[in-house]
Amino acid sequence: MQWRCKNGLDAGFGAAKHLSQQGYNVTLIDASPNPGGLSAGWRTPQGRAVEAGIKGFWYQYHNIFALLRELGIPWPLTDWTTSGFWSPQGLTTEAPVFSRRPQLPTMLGQFVHTLPLFKRLSLADRATMVPLLAAVVDFDATPETYARYDSMTALELFQKFGVSKALYEEFLRPLLLVGLFAPAEELSAAAVLGTFYFYTLAHQNDFDVCWAKGSVSELIFDPLVRRIEAAGGNIVGGRLVSGLQLDELTGDVSAVLSRDRAGDETVHPADGVVFAIGISGMQKLVAGCPELGRRAEFARIANLRSIDCIATRIWFDRRIATQFPANVLSGFEECTGGTWFNLNDLQDEYKGASGAVIAADFYHSNALMPLSDEAIVARIIDSAVLRFPKAVTHFSPGSYASRPLQTTSFGNVFMAGDWVKGVPHGANGLSQERAYVTGLRAANMVVDKLGWGVHADILPVEPDEPYIAALKGANRGVKSVLSASGIRSPFL
Hints:
This protein is of the alpha/beta class. It has helices at 9-21, 62-71, 108-114, 123-127, 132-138, 143-151, 154-160, 165-179, 189-201, 216-230, 279-288, 290-293, 296-299, 343-346, 373-376, 432-450, 466-484; strands at residues 2-6, 25-29, 41-43, 49-51, 56-58, 83-87, 90-95, 209-211, 234-236, 240-246, 253-259, 265-269, 272-276, 305-315, 326-333, 336-342, 357-363, 382-394, 413-416. Among the domains are: 2-39 and 215-304 and 404-450, FAD/NAD(P)-binding domain (3-Layer(bba) Sandwich), CATH 3.50.50.60; 83-207 and 462-484, no CATH class. The protein is built from 17 helices and 19 strands. InterPro entries: Amino_oxidase, FAD/NAD-bd_sf, Zeta_carotene_desat/Oxidored. This is FAD/NAD(P)-binding domain-containing protein.
């Protein structure tokens, strides 16, 4: 059986791995000569590793952690680390390792364990976060409720629920600029609440994070590629998907067309197809492929947006002591967030180095994109600046309606990636875990469609804590009664 995948991040490779292991003849097609999207890595001419930003692995990444164990590789991740949040005024707060602290009910635990860590934010300001609990309980109670939250901005949400200006400026705004890569006035309130819940609010330990002990590409991605190829999968780089051929009887896709850089076209017969690609890449594909552009769910993708990112890495001639190995930056550039990492503390390759190695990544970096490399970094021993225009999903207000489901109007075409909707899994936002899970779900849809193989196991996030589950259940019950009576919900 022939199966084709247009690659994107972890989604395409997750689907390719499972289907190749089920005996499918898998071909994974990528426009880049170095397949892997934002999982790819390089070496500078001097042999130093660079990659598309530093990627964190959060406490609820159960499926990715299971993949790493399955690959049988030396454990590639650090222990959980502390992180610092910085503004031009200095240190704002730090994120401790919550799993090492006494376990308390969610939200109470986060509040208690960070109580002494905020440097400039008063207890009264922090308390203005409490009313947002009502929105957290309410926002996904029904599809109609979610749509209402999606239609408003996160800034409007914060104002509606009384979040103080100080709490927003000192903490929430920086968190959004590095968590969803845009300021609150440009983000869907529903997407923000879903992301906050997955990464920070559902359980005390959710914000615990670890990092790769070296290049993600070399430590994790390369072993994954070898596993796919060992199972018979074929990974093809440097080819752009240029069209589809349809079966005249069923209307399903019967072949995928691709072109190389010289313009030579290849026909890839296909019983099933998964598009696992980012928004900007999918928009280009739809624009150049009339078979897709004529279908409403693909045409709506033109309404979506994506965000510019810059990744830098700088090698210094001497060591630099830093308070935290991982750090969040905000307020240094209007509407741009940043992170920086001391790789001497995180990556094995640099622990004994005589000079410091710092990685700094910038998100929503529109204003920085035109700058020269020299204007972005000061060259010391070596440096690398990587620009990724329109690289990551922009969960803008109202975007949910235009995001595709994993199933499409083609019977044998499926979607994967962190931006697809209708995924019954708790991983949300710009999440490697969400992307990987959608890849596994797409593989399962291919198995169901073609009737060969077994489903990939997909591990759920931890269930809601009892009091949160009780509040959500009560809220849904109230909404049901009000709806039956023709009365609108008291929240949104």
